[in-house]
Design brief:
This protein is mostly helical. It has one domain (12-470). Helices cover 82% and strands 0% of the residues. The chain is built from 18 helices and no strands. It has helices spanning 12-45, 51-68, 72-82, 87-119, 127-140, 144-159, 164-187, 192-221, 224-232, 234-239, 244-277, 280-324, 328-363, 377-383, 385-407, 411-432, 438-454, 457-465. α3 (72-82) packs across α11 (244-277). It comes from Oceanobacter antarcticus.
């Protein structure tokens, strides 16, 4: 990618091409994640006891709460990488991300191993489900360091616009995970422990794949001596560790993203807990619906990631031009580029959301039997399918606008919108509709998704009208 301000702003067709070039690998790689969840659900859903599916649902939700609370490592790395003006700056961002991820993973992994078993009873599930969830988590926490390091790697490659690398990493990880799960459950008569063990092995395989790509990239730009040091001389890398002051930009943006991500995951955990309190069948039905929601969100995130990368790069060019040339015409041309990115990514997100809703509508009655043959669960899934059909149209706004926020470095805007939507919309509406049971729970969740988008609209207008005000300083 180019870092010079002399590069002219691309037109509408060129911008659309750049968006698709970044988005399609991200879509494919992201879709593999919930597809793996669907594979796990299908494997466990065909076992005679629904408690296994509920156990993995709760265990995976708590593991997600543990790790995705630190998903800011991905988003923060993407934002700082995209807004960097040189390859050296981008390399520094990755190094800082690793130096932040490694000690965090050690601390959080130990904390999770000690504390998560104490949290499981709060979910209100049956004893069989709780025991299975505890077994799952006792194994799954081993992969925390690999997950945190993967966040940094994925964010770095996305920020650089090299989204085919995350596609390869995630594809290898999730294919290995699905294959190992089937082997352990069907071939070795394991249950929740087999699913957890398969995930751990696959996570470290994915990390090794990502590090290999970084080594290949570094080998192309460094001298043979440096390449030798990269592979063999760990102490030299230790002496290059960043100071606390150098880590401040990474810590600042990630602190805000941490609050935002933790709030989102607490909403999901609360949603699952309320489903569990209504029985194993409601929990299992909501589990499958949420897994399909992840399929929706990860598909839409392909466009959002393109918005992150291209918005950050365009704003970096705008700021560099303003600093070096102070040319009003050049700044205006690059500002138009930001506006094109906003419009085209929004149209792409809406189009994809409509397509997903049409697919779920056409799926009809053949969708759910793919994931379970439980005769008591299937009618319940048919009853709540209407909520699945509307999810893409309701949810795409917040995913798209989050991408713009990350590209613009507006992490505080994301944090404030998430907190406000959760505390002032989701929780009060859930309390008011609690007598409606699961229907009230889904209604509250819909309102939460819409509120996230509404509370970011003011920022979006400012970004469109005054892009230069979000350009990084140089």
């Amino acid at each position: 990618m180019s870092f010079t301000s002399a590069v002219p702003a691309p037109g509408w067709a060129a911008t659309q091409g750049r968006i698709l070039a970044i988005a399609w690998p991200v879509m494919l790689s992201n879709i593999t994640v919930p597809l793996l969840g669907l594979v796990d659900s299908a494997i466990l859903g065909h076992l005679p006891d629904a408690a296994y599916l509920g156990a993995v649902s709760i265990g995976a939700q708590l593991f997600t709460l543990l790790c995705w609370s630190f998903g800011f490592l991905r988003m923060g790395t993407t934002a700082l990488t995209a807004r960097s003006c040189s390859a050296a700056e981008q390399t520094g961002v990755l190094g800082h991300a690793f130096w932040l991820a490694l000690p965090l993973s050690a601390i959080i992994g130990c904390a999770g191993w000690l504390l998560l078993p104490q949290v499981i009873p709060w979910m209100g599930a049956t004893q069989a489900v709780s025991d299975g969830a505890q077994l799952y988590l006792s194994i799954r926490v081993i992969s925390v360091p690999a997950v945190f390091a993967q966040y940094a790697l994925l964010g770095w490659f996305i920020g650089r616009g090299q989204t085919r690398v995350p596609l390869i990493i995630m594809t290898i990880t999730n294919l290995a995970n699905g294959g190992l799960d089937a082997l352990f459950v069907y071939g070795m008569d394991m249950t929740t422990d087999g699913v957890a063990l398969g995930s751990v092995i696959a996570d470290y395989l994915g990390l090794a794949t990502g590090l290999w790509f970084v080594w290949r990239l570094q080998a192309n730009v460094e001298t043979p001596a440096d390449q030798h040091n990269l592979i063999h001389t760990v102490l030299q890398r230790w002496h290059r560790r960043p100071s606390w002051q150098q880590l401040q930009p990474m810590i600042r943006i990630n602190r805000q993203l941490f609050v935002r991500t933790l709030t989102l995951l607490l909403v999901f955990a609360f949603f699952n807990a309320q489903g569990a309190r209504q029985g194993e069948l409601i929990l299992a039905a909501n589990s499958l619906m949420i897994t399909l929601l992840l399929l929706i969100s990860n598909a839409l995130d392909g466009i959002a990631h393109a918005a992150e990368s291209l918005t950050g790069q365009a704003l970096a060019q705008t700021g560099q031009t303003a600093h070096q040339r102070r040319s009003r015409d050049a700044i205006e041309r690059l500002s138009v580029n930001v506006q094109r990115i906003i419009i085209i990514t929004g149209v792409n997100s809406l189009t994809l959301a409509i397509l997903l809703s049409l697919i779920f509508t056409a799926a009809g009655n053949w969708l759910w039997p793919l994931f379970t043959n439980n005769p008591a669960l299937l009618p319940l899934l048919d009853e709540y399918q209407i909520w699945l059909i509307g999810l893409p149209l309701v949810g795409f706004w917040s995913y798209w606008l989050d991408g713009l926020c990350i590209g613009a470095g507006a992490a505080s805007t994301m944090r404030n919108a998430m907190l406000t939507a959760a505390l002032l919309v989701f929780m009060p509406l859930w309390w008011l509709t609690s007598e409606l049971g699961n229907t009230g729970l889904w209604l509250s969740f819909y309102a939460f998704l819409l509120a996230r988008a509404v509370f970011v609209m003011r920022f979006t207008r400012q970004l469109y009208c005054e892009p230069v005000s979000f350009a990084p300083e140089h």
